[in-house]
Write a structure and sequence with these properties.
single chain, alpha/beta, D-Maltodextrin-Binding Protein, domain 2, elongated
Length: 371
């Protein structure tokens, strides 16, 4: 499935209702998939937010910033997507970033470390972006690739090495599969997308995919690339390549349909399918009071309507800022991207699914903990 990104500046059109009513600065009442109530941006806000991390969030972050700045013209937001989730978390814990974008919430060790940067309350994880890990490929003559979880695990374990392997052929009857060698492309940097993908593989095929789940790719011998864009560019330029990336970043590449559960359903990414997969599999896993972290049990996802590799991405922010003005600015921005209008903007510009209302309903109380 392909998704054509809308230019980030198009987000301003979605935010025009906010900008036109800048005196009250209220977003329009939600008309679909209600999340938080109509959101207010103070047009007098000013200052700079320095952040970075998740490349999966990059298109959404650009659109959110454009829309936010359409009202709060004195605000500058510098989001560095080149860091990846791992670099974003590292810089946040070092005190360099006002917030980190990450496709995984902080783990317990990093939550403890955040108390050094953020004070006794540590940091909070805010889910802001729901998408899916797309399995992208570039194989001559193949336009509708289907892969079971078992075959996918064998490929990424480097056990299936050619595209005409019997296992791939059995799942793609009628397709002309070349004898081309498979080049597996992975992330070389610390990546939340990698964490989601390896968690999926280790959960659904633990006897085949024996590498450790985590932000570092665990199997040697792949073509490691920096950032999601590095994976996408390498798959695009190669022959017989396969890799993984957030769906918003795949450009002109086609994503494979992935087996959903243990049945015969092969599902392509769509926002609705990502939502169905996520809602079937996610459970609350707070690290501290007010934390909105979730764990995904990929083994619970099945059926023709559920995409099997949903990806939930977070903004991670301190509960205590040294400067009250900076706290107010960061809270305003996080509140905006977690509002109905913010979620509509990311859906339009990054093809994401709105984060479920059941999660976003808790935003107000969690934001109130930031001082």
């Amino acid at each position: 499935m392909k998704f054509k990104n809308v230019a980030a500046v198009g987000a301003i059109a979605l935010a025009s209702a906010i900008a036109l009513s800048a005196c009250s600065a209220a977003a329009p009442t939600p008309t679909s998939t209600p999340t938080t109530a109509a959101y207010t941006i103070d047009p007098k806000l000013a200052g700079t937010i320095t952040a970075g991390g998740s490349s999966a969030q990059a298109n959404a972050e650009a659109a959110w910033y454009a829309a936010f700045k359409a009202v709060a013209t004195g605000v500058t937001i510098n989001y560095d997507k080149s860091q990846g989730s791992g670099g974003g978390v590292t810089n946040f814990l070092a005190g360099t970033y006002d917030f980190a974008g990450s496709d995984s919430p902080l783990n317990k060790d990093n939550q403890t470390k955040s108390q050094t940067t953020c004070g006794a309350g540590g940091a909070l994880n805010f889910p802001v972006y729901l998408s899916g890990v797309a399995v992208i490929y570039n194989v001559a003559g193949v336009t509708d690739l289907k892969l079971s979880s078992a075959t996918l695990a064998e490929i990424f374990m480097l056990k299936i090495t050619t595209w005409n392997d019997p296992a791939i052929a059995a799942e793609n009857k009628g397709a002309t599969l070349p004898a081309t060698a498979i080049t597996v492309v992975t992330r070389s940097d610390g990546s939340g997308t990698t964490a989601n993908f390896t968690n999926y593989l280790t959960q659904v095929q633990p006897t085949i995919f024996t590498g450790a789940a985590g932000s570092a790719w665990p199997i040697p011998g792949t073509s490691g690339q920096q950032g999601g864009s590095g994976v996408v560019n390498t798959v695009t330029a190669g022959a017989g390549t396969i890799g993984y990336a957030d769906h918003s970043s795949i450009g002109k590449l086609t994503a494979a349909s992935i087996q959903s559960g243990t049945g015969t359903d092969f599902v392509t990414y769509s926002p609705a399918a990502a939502t169905a997969g996520f809602e079937a599999a996610a459970v609350a896993a707070p690290l501290t009071a007010g934390d909105l972290s979730k764990k995904i049990d990929y083994t619970k996802i099945s059926g023709a309507s559920a995409y099997p590799i949903p990806l939930l991405s977070y903004v991670i922010a301190c509960t205590t800022f040294k400067l009250p003005a900076q706290s107010a600015l960061v809270k305003a921005y996080i509140g905006f991207i977690g509002s109905d209008i913010g979620q509509k903007i990311s859906a339009k510009n990054a093809g994401s699914a709105p984060v479920p209302a059941s999660i976003l309903a808790d935003f107000t109380a969690s934001l109130a903990l930031i001082k």
